[in-house]
Amino acid sequence: MERAEWLKQMREKVEELYDHFSQLYWVTWGLSESITHREFLQKFLGQLAPSSTLLSAACGAGRWDGMLLDAGHRVLGIDQSEGMLRRAREHFPEIQYKKMGLQELDYREAFDGATCVDALEHVSPEDWPGILRKFQEALRPGGVLYFTVDLAEGEDVEVSYQRALAMGLPVVFGEVADRVDEAYEQFKALGIIPLQVADASVYHYHPSLEQVRLWLGQAGLAVEQEGTGNEYEHFLVRKSRLG
Prior knowledge:
alpha/beta, two-stranded antiparallel sheet
């Protein structure tokens, strides 16, 4: 299979599976506490003027949107999963939510700040540079972006990579996708996926942090703060005040 077609299928499966899982989100997921996520969100909020306009990108069911609202800001949420957006609207009817993937982001200097939390792990290496550029374009001069990068054990990534190659999948190193087809077929047959394999049922890509920093520089975004916690690397970056 051509890689472009394979990546298209991976993205479609991510959307379908998140649509399916969305009905359980506020019951099974979304309730665990992450101290580092909360700390970085507070740092992000501390960089904003009162009543800022914010983008909650790949917002899912709106897990962190309440913090943005409680701080007195206007929020637009986007996600490619309509199921997750329905859950978000139930919890935060005052927020405007729109079905839009990160790859389709097309705003120009519309936001004072943006967040993209626990989502970029589902983005392919081909799409990372363009998405970061789209964030840069969506932010007003001096705007701030907070995002996370999922960290993975190197040995786990290597094992998945070698297994995927043996399966004939057109993977590159850093992608974890060797169980996606298996889980997807189980989902299609039974309508369920056991919780213990839910995370492995969707495509992941784990870039090196050096690569992420390189992409940020190429996109015109400067790292202001960075830290590690809760199995994620947390980035607070800024667009130049000169635009």
